[in-house]
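User: Fold this one for me? It's Reactive intermediate/imine deaminase.
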Amino acid sequence: MSKQIVYTEQAPAPIGPYSQAVKANNTLYVSGQVAIELAPLGDIRAETQKVMENIGAILKAADMDYANIVKASIFVKDMNNFSAINEVYGQFFSQNPPARETVEVARLPKDVNVEISVIAIF
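Assistant: Here's what I get for Reactive intermediate/imine deaminase.
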């Protein structure tokens, strides 16, 4: 198995012992992305937009784009934000959106409101 670490300065540096993404064979595993650049937080649409832009930057660093995503995991602090997150998230997938789950959690890193991780293939 070949394994390559993917990193870009166009997305936040990891805040712990993990990589932005790892490419293994034909699959890219993108770590959960948050909008820590937007402190103070509060606008869920702006947070979701920034998270998706961070994911896009990491995909680009791996010579991929949103069309390569096959699975997304969304973690949200308040499920009442589901429709707003969906509205922004959906703009990045005009056709054939990936499989996905959305889970409400008690707390997220840096007290953000949304975190999204993805798996993409070549």
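One thing worth pointing out: The helical segments are 44-61, 82-90.
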